[in-house]
Amino acid sequence: MSETQAFKEEEFHNESLDVKLWKEILHLLKPMKPIMIKVCVIMAVLAMCDACYPVFSRIAVNHFIIEHGTDTELGWFIAAFAALILVQSFLVYWMIEYSGQIETGFSYELRKQLFEKLQLLSFSYYDKNPVGWIMSRLTSDINRLSEILAWSFSDLFWGLTTMIVITLVMLVTDWKLALIVLGTIPFLAVIANWFEKRILRNYRDVRKTNSLITGAFSEGIEGAKTTKTLVLEEQNSREFRNLTKRMRVKSVHAGTISALMMPTVTTLSYIAIGALLWQGGNKVLLGAMQFGTLLMFSQYAQSFFDPLRTIAGLMAEMQMAQASGERVLSLLKEEPKITDTPEVIEQYGTILNPKTENYPEMTGDIEFEDVTFRYIPEETVLDHFNLKVKAGSTVALVGETGSGKSTIVNLLCRFYEPVEGSIKIDGKDYREYSVGWLHDHLGYVLQTPHLFSGTVLENIRYGRPEASEEEVIEAAKTVNADTFIQKLDKGYQTDVGEGGNRLSTGEKQLISFARAVLKDPKLLVLDEATSSVDTESEQKIQDAIEVLMKGRTSFVVAHRLSTIVNADLILVMKDGKISEQGTHAGLMAKKGYYYKLYTNRFMEEENRKIMSKKENMSL
Amino acid sequence: MNNLRFLWKNASRSIRIRQILLIFVVTGYVLLGLLSPLVFSYIIDNVIDLQPITSPVTQYFSDLLGGPMYIREHLWVGSLVLLGISVLYAGFMFVRGRWNALISESVSESIRNRLYAHLQMLPYAYHVRAKTGDLIQRSTSDINTIRRFLAGQFSEMCYAVLTSAIAVSILFSINPHIAWYSLVSLPPIFLFAFIYFKKMHRDFEKADEAEGLLSAKIQENLSGMRVVRAFHKEQFEIEKVDEANRTYRDLIHKAIKNNAMYWALSDLLCIGQILLIVIIGIFACRRGDLSVGNFWVFTTYESMIVYPMRQLGRILSDFGKMTVSIRRIQEVMNEKEEDTQTGCEPDMRQDIEFDHVSFKYDDGTNHVLEDVSMKIPYGKTVAIMGPTGSGKSSLVHLLTGLYKPTSGEIRVGGVPVTRMKQSWLRRHIGIVLQEPFLFSRTIKENIRIARPGASDEEIYEAAKKADVHDVIMGFDKGYDTPVGEKGVTLSGGQKQRVAIARTVLNQSPVMIFDDSLSAVDTETDYAIRESLKKMSGSLTMIIITQRISSAKDADRIFILEDGKITASGTHEELIARPGLYKRVYDLQTKGGESDE
């Protein structure tokens, strides 16, 4: 996954700074403004403290060693020095603490906003953006952005203040010597800029190669069995060695460039120090200056590079974080495609703040009236489709994978809306109700059951948090889930693990049934699983499905023959269209596509029964 | 010590020499760094202040440059000396930095290569058991920890120790009474850094855990978005994630607070120590015990010692991480490799014979295969049918030497497979796994991997035989379509067919299909077997399947149930007597008539 991310990061990479983008990002920081100002002030004062130390050495040498200042003065000097250290320590503490507040507060707030947005975005957004891709916006992108905003901007203040204060102190003390030191600044600036750019670029190169190595390792490990059977061990190792060699060459190159920076800077500052010693030393000999001053200048000569480097680094880092900023902002600006009209919201509230007291009961009559639908403009999936379903009856959707069965479900659940025509619930276009109302009356069972980490109890209660424990157990019993749940080591309090992965697929399925039953919806959407479970569970699931559908309007994406045969209406889907519809008997008599599908399915199911009887013994 | 030996073993000769020389380079670097304050001091005390020179070493160098009086007239000489020293100093600094990179990168390259090659050579059984995520972590972040240690921490440690040792001895030679004071805070600084850094590390670990939980919650929400929406639980999810988000924020904030405490307090200690030496120095100067130049040497040296000492504490408290990493890598390296290179290389175009073969896994109690005997004549097609878990796949694993039989023997042309060179054996027995692994490169490269010398035409030919040529041509980039993460996602059936093409290209005399046509439809299954049959006569085919349609054309069909062969014969023979095969067959005929 990391490789894909690195790959996509590059697509967004942009060399120039996008001022508008950063303005927008800074705008997001507005609630943090008071604390940001505090940090900047602290940084400036800290810079002054830093600049004070050489002044103290100067005073120590000039006034107390050479001129023998009085003991009282010395007392004050020591007290001032000690105070300076104390102040600096406090400032360091507050600087880090405040910056930390900005970093954590900003990332918290941003993540919260993005997550809320994600709860409202339509499914068309999720179709376009894979989960891993969204995840990286909520984790690494946010982290990078808040890090740079919290630490780098205040560094800028530190850098600028340091330079200004030092320059002033030097100019006031001796402007000729000051010019010697200041003369190095342009060179230092060029060096800082040159190196910072290259170091960051090299670093990125190395990281890319590193992610290739990680990829190779994971492929080498995951594909080890295939490697063995094809005898590819040596070939793979050879290719891997090429990769690590490339990594070494690139890293050493990057390391060499980095290793070159400080020596260059040191040499440059020593040129200044040499010149200071020569010019300043002569002044001392003439009695025009004291040692301490000379020493102070030599210390200052080495203090300009750090701030310059910080400033150069900030530019480079902002360029790198820009892509993160773009991605985060684009998600923030994304608008949900499916929303309720203001009138509906007025009456029923929003998704996050529903007025459930206004929600009408649902009877469960469904009507697709002249519905046309397409996911993408070029391709019509449903064309003037009509369907009338009476409350309480069962509709089975049959067809091969990708034949469009889920489109009907998607429309019914209002994950998508018809492009033309309307879907009516109890005789009224469902857009005249709120999305929240529909979902409150909907039971939905996925093909691959999805549980949330937490206990079995919490998972069943998901749709009705106020349900009592007895009700939960009752629901579990009706779908045959109670027996196995009781056998788990902590019963209903057993933790199901992330995504429910501590349970088997069959168990997860039963729990998701119980979850739907407990909610007692008027409208049920059931996506049957294709994958086989052992015969015993299969029977349980079949029974459970029957219970589940009783007394509700049910739409089932059906794979089980029993479900199909018992349905009140069968819709046979082919290539995104409805090719046949009717009851089982009627469709079989037609000997058409359904007939073929059914016989194949029948054989497969029976064959599977014979072949899977040893399922629980498999490795 | 064991750890250092591990690193040493992974360094080439030139790197070892460099590593030793690096210590000298760091020494030179330290010495030159300590020299310039001395030059300053000389110029202040002896040249400008004209005090008598006390140290013979200083006297020697002073004479060499023409004596204090000469330098007094020509101060630029002093400047040049200082510049000369700094250029040398810069040179050493550069060499140190470059060598750090060279050494750490070479050693990690070597560890990576050895680990990778080792993983490739570990037996099949190891990879079946192995936890992929854990192994990847060992191969990446653990190696990285070692690399970081070598890339800077090692020479940083040398630097800290050498600087303090040399600087302190120079200070003692100048004035032992005052020198004592320069040491006062060093132990507390070191200890403080050591202990506090450990604490901070724990804080960050906790925060990392919380971050993991938060990510898991978000991930769970995103992948279960349909459930969330259908149950109208958006608000609930927002609150749930908000709680995790807040926990993470508070933990990381706490870690940062501690971090702030660390820097503030350690700064206080470090600068406090400098203040101490300044005060003591001033008093000594005023008493006449110390010259101005030496006062300068004391204060500069002090700041050159305290910060590395703090750094040393941090590095040492981090040291444990490296030992753990090395141990984790060694654990993998100590696993025994499979020997695929020794053994005989017999003619493989021969009959295969299972002779009373039984097998159970090392950690298993039940036999997976029990007393299996069968003969597969060269050039014939054999099908093995049986329910899931009946031991079909184990049969294949034994034949290809991926596991060894517990008892009994498998022979090809009379030679037991266990005596053969395993790479030879596997090169001649092509096997297509049920869930084949495709490497993340182009389709063409994935097929060619089986025989690197194959021409494009041969690859197309193999793909046609596997009935996947047209599918591939249907992709925008045809055979150059990348597979996997960055490329197209192939369906299960397409993957299986690419894997078949790969095995076909290998031209092995024996081919095994381990349920590897399960994800393609019956018609394609048939077409593939037909085109492969054209190769037969020169090809022994073993088809493992649950489908009667795939089995029925075989020359002989073996029925495997519970690890035992319960029946064998041709299709006609098997449908003539009761048993699993007949039951499945009947079902099929009945299915055809099931229109009520």
Helix content of chain A: 55-70%
* Helical segment count of chain A: 23
Overall pLDDT metric of chain A:
86
CATH superfamily grouping of the domain at 19-333 in chain A: ABC transporter type 1, transmembrane domain
Low-confidence stretches of chain A: 1-13, 614-619
- Give the % helix of chain B: 55-70%
Strand-pairing-aware structural class of chain A: alpha/beta
**Largest β sheet strand count, sense and barrel closure of chain A:** 6 strands, mixed
Describe, in short, the structure shown.
The complex is a heterodimer of chains A (619) and B (596). By secondary structure, chain A is α/β, with parallel strands linked by helices.
Describe what you observe in this structure.
- The complex is a heterodimer of chains A (619) and B (596).
- By secondary structure, chain A is α/β, with parallel strands linked by helices.
- Among the domains of chain A are: 19-333, ABC transporter transmembrane region fold (Up-down Bundle), CATH 1.20.1560.10; 448-520, 3-Layer(aba) Sandwich (Rossmann fold), CATH 3.40.50.300.
- Chain A has 23 helices and ten strands.
- Chain A has helices at residues 2-12, 19-28, 33-66, 71-120, 123-128, 131-173, 175-182, 185-222, 224-230, 233-285, 291-300, 305-333, 342-348, 405-412, 435-440, 456-460, 469-478, 482-487, 505-519, 535-549, 561-566, 584-590, 593-611, and strands at 366-373, 382-389, 394-399, 420-425, 428-429, 442-445, 523-527, 553-557, 569-574, 577-582.
- In chain A, the strands form two sheets. Chain A has a six-stranded mixed beta sheet, with helices on both faces. Chain A has a four-stranded antiparallel beta sheet with strand order 2-1-4-5, with helices on one face.
- The longest helix of chain A is centred in the middle third of the chain and has 53 residues, at 233-285.
- The model of chain A is unreliable at 1-13 and 614-619 (pLDDT under 50).
- With 596 residues, chain B is α/β, with parallel strands linked by helices.
- Chain B has three domains: 1-175 and 320-338, ABC transporter transmembrane region fold; 176-289; 352-593, 3-Layer(aba) Sandwich (Rossmann fold), CATH 3.40.50.300.
- Helices cover 65% and strands 9% of the residues of chain B.
- Chain B contains 22 helices and ten strands.
- Chain B has helices at 2-9, 13-48, 56-64, 67-73, 75-121, 124-129, 132-174, 176-183, 186-223, 225-230, 234-287, 292-333, 392-399, 422-428, 443-448, 456-465, 469-473, 492-505, 522-533, 548-551, 571-575, 580-593, and strands spanning 352-359, 369-376, 381-385, 407-412, 415-416, 429-432, 510-514, 540-545, 556-561, 564-569.
- In chain B, the strands form two sheets. Chain B has a six-stranded mixed beta sheet with strand order 6-7-8-3-9-10, sandwiched between helices. Chain B has a four-stranded antiparallel beta sheet with strand order 2-1-4-5, covered by helices on one side.
- In chain B, helix 8 packs antiparallel against helix 11 and helix 16 (456-465) packs across helix 18.
- The longest helix of chain B has 54 residues, at 234-287.
- Chain B starts with a helix and ends with a helix.
- The chains are: A alpha/beta (619), B alpha/beta (596).
- Chains A and B meet through helix 1, helix 3, helix 4, helix 6 and helix 8 of A and helix 2, helix 5, helix 6, helix 7 and helix 9 of B.
